[in-house]
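Backbones bend. Our protein:
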Amino acid sequence: MNTRPVRRLLRTAGTGVCAVLLAAGTIAAGPPAPREPAPFVLVPASTVPAEELARLGRPVPLSEYTAAQPETGVGSPPQYEADAASADDPDLKKECAERADKTSPAGWVKNRFESCVHHHYDVVLRRTDGSETIGRLWFEVWLLGFAYDGQRRVDYVASVEDIIVAPVGSEDAKLWSIDQEFTHLGGRVTDPDTKRRSDLLGAWNSNPLWTLTYTSPDNGPLYDQGDNQIVNTTVTMSINVKSPTAPARAFKDDDAAHSDVRFDYAGPTAGKYKGTVFTAARVELVMSLSDPAVRESARHISDAQNNPERTFPSFTAKTIPGAKEPLHRLVDREEQRKNRAAAIKTCDDIWGDYTKSGLECDEYPFASTKEGANKGDRRYSARLIDGDDNGKGGNMLGEVYSVNRLLNGDPFYVKIIP
C-alpha cells in the first residue's frame, strides 16, 4: 500500500492547524499592558544632566515659596531650642566659611576645643529613568563643635539654613523634610536626650538651630593611681532628605560630619585637672627668630629642622623631626632625665666645660618628647645657648602642653617663623 500521499496530507493538515492556533493566540493576547511609571527618587543634582536641571522652575527662598502657596493643613513638628552654653558662634562660622577644608566630613578643626563643618546640599526629585523631574532643593548645614578644658563635655550646635526650592507642577515643597541624626561610637559616653531632629522645611526655616551635649562620667581624681580615665569616641552626624512623592527613595548622607573626641581626668599633667579635646587638631609650638626672648632657641630649632648637617651629633643624611614629622609628648620623669643626660654628654664632648659661661645645653627634640636624645637614633641636636633664652623656650613648651591638654604620647609640631 502506498502511504506517501497520506503522510503528505497529514503534514499539510498539521501546518494548517498550527497556523489557525497561532492566529487565534495572537487575537486572544490583545494589546500589551501599560508599563508602570518609574518611581521617584531624591538624588544629588551633580548626577542629573544639565539640560534636565534647566527645565526646572525658578529657584526661590523657602519663605517666599511658602507665602505664595495655599495652606496644606500639615502642621510642623515640635521646635527645638539652641540652648548650649556656647550657642551659635558667629566668629567661628565666619572663620570656618573661609576655610577650604570645612566641607570634608572631618571639617576644619580650629584647635583642640573648636571645630566646624559646613556643607552645601543640592538635591533633585526625579524619576529613576530620568523621564520626569519635579523638584530641586538647596540648603546649607552647619555643625559647630565646642570641647572644654575643665569639663568632660562636648557641645554641638547643628543647623539647616538658607533653604531654597524649585518645585514643579503640583509637587509641594512644604511637605519635604530634613533629618539630622547623631550617633557615637566607642567609650563610656552619655548621649544627649535628643539625638535626632526630623522637621519639615518650614520648621527648619523658622528655627534652624538645635544643640546636643555629650558627657563622660568620671570617678573623681584617680591619676595618682595611674588612671587618667581616658575615653575616646567618634561623634557622627547624618543627613536625610525626604519627600512624600519618593517615600522609600530618600537622599542620604550617612557621614555628613564626624569628630574624634577624647575625655580625660589626667590631673596637673595637662593643666586643668580634667577636660575634653578634639584629637584631630594640629598642635604647634610657634617660635619666632625675631623674638629676643627666645631668639637662640628658635635659631637652634630652625637649624635642626632645615640644616641638620650643621648640628651635633653630625652624620651623613641626618634628619630631625618636628616640622613635618610630629613629636610626641613624654611625661615619664626618668625618661626625660635620660634624654637630658644624653644631650648634655654631646655638649660636653663638643664644647668641654661650659659651667661658668652662662650658657646651657639646649636639646632638640626636647627632653620631654619621645624623640629625645636618648631614643638611640641620633636624630637630635645639642647646642650651647643663653641660659635665660633656654628657660623661656622651655616655658613656652610647657604652656603648649597645658593649654592644649597634651597627654603622654600626644603629637605636636614645632614651627619657626621669621
Q: What stands out?
A: Residues 258 and 344 are 45 Å apart (CA to CA). The chain has two domains: 40-278, 284-417.
